Structure prediction request, 298 residues.
Amino acid sequence: MSHSRHALPPLHLLLAIAIMAVWGTNFVVIKLALAHLTPLTLATLRFVIVFLPLALVLPRPQVPWRNLAAYGLLIGAGQFGVLFTAMRHDITPGLASLVVQTQVFFTIGLSMRLTGERIAPFQIVALLLATAGLAVIVLHTDGTATPLGLGLVLVAALSWSLGNMVARKAGSVNMLAYVVWSALFAVPPLALFALLLDGPAAVWGGIRAADGWTWGAVAWQAVGNTMFGYAAWGWLLHRHPAAQVAPLALLVPVFGLGASALVLDEPLQPWKLAAFTLVMAGLALGITWPHLRERFAR
Prediction:
């Protein structure tokens, strides 16, 4: 691991931006797939394609099965199953891409809980800014986000941060192989919930009605978002300090809101831009302040 103090090399920076573009625009892709498929069917298919065919060529990472199972359940059912459910009727892709980034605060909170670290003043300010942004969204439940949608996306964000903790416990592993093998544990609960909650008729009806765009969106979920995204992000995190790489995740909602406005004509009302500014200011402060403070101290 070459943890240099210098800026990211241009090619590494471009790779990071490409990952954020894929992850941000993916919210629009999800919305397109949900036109035919039920949310839990889409999540199930996504993880089936992640597992096969790569599990045939990538050896299982040397981590306990229970670690893989925990990650698969948290990311598969907890993050994506819940996120897709929210995005069907209860929140727009642009707002979902913004709210799910609150996983940063959950991750910081969970780390503190584990290490017994005290919360710093800058973290309180960051959290207040982001909470103010979420409050703006709650006050404007005009169909772009319902309280249920907002709540579900926050549950997805919490699941994502818990997944981060589990992945950290796995240590230094091939992140792509880790994501692929954990998908084995995401598929059964997602398929079961799809059949129980949506019903076999809705599941099969959606699959039969799916067109080329829908299947393209499903493939993009697996190949672009998961295989490319997670593998490349893991690769960058192993080569550079997290403080240099993590702030780039702030670009996800920028791409998310932008793509949603361009492709789906999601309106960008003043209140939405205000909420976006508050949440992003909170995230930016929470992620970059320790790095900036260290720089000023030097």
Remarks:
- The first helix runs from residue 10 to 33.
